[in-house]
Design goal:
48% of the residues lie in helices and 16% in strands. The protein has four helices and four strands, in the order H-H-E-H-E-E-H-E. It has helices at residues 2-9, 13-27, 46-58, 79-92, and strands at residues 37-41, 62-63, 73-77, 96-100. A four-stranded antiparallel β-sheet has the order 2-3-1-4. It is elongated and about 55 Å long. The protein starts with a helix and ends in a 5-residue tail after the last strand.
């Protein structure tokens, strides 16, 4: 009977052990935002809006707000794409401010 009691008490430890291993595993997969930038766009023309809408639909960047001509549009850019986005915005004439130079800080 003591072995049945011991076997019956073991399942109570499984959720605790599973949570512990899950926390250790997840710690290794925490995303870093080192070098990520957030740009605030001021879209004032229809052509600029159409170009930014195409970027939005491409899903290469994380838009914090939808493209709009009536309010600012915020975009998070990974370090490897931030320069290209800034160049593109200059070419199409969409003014922007960098509101976060490094999102990780």
């Amino acid at each position: 009977m003591s072995s049945a009691l011991a076997a019956g008490s073991m399942p109570c430890l499984y959720p605790t052990i599973a949570c512990l291993f899950s926390a250790i595993r997840d710690r290794d997969f925490i995303k870093s935002y080192e070098g990520y930038q957030v740009l605030r766009l001021n879209i004032t023309t229809k052509s600029g809006f159409e170009q930014i809408k195409n970027v939005y639909l491409s899903e290469q960047y994380d838009f914090w707000s939808s493209p709009s001509m009536h309010a600012s549009t915020d975009i998070m850019a990974p370090p490897q794409l931030a320069g290209a986005l800034k160049t593109f915005l200059g070419i199409i004439g969409v003014p922007f401010d960098v509101i976060y130079e490094n999102l990780q800080e």
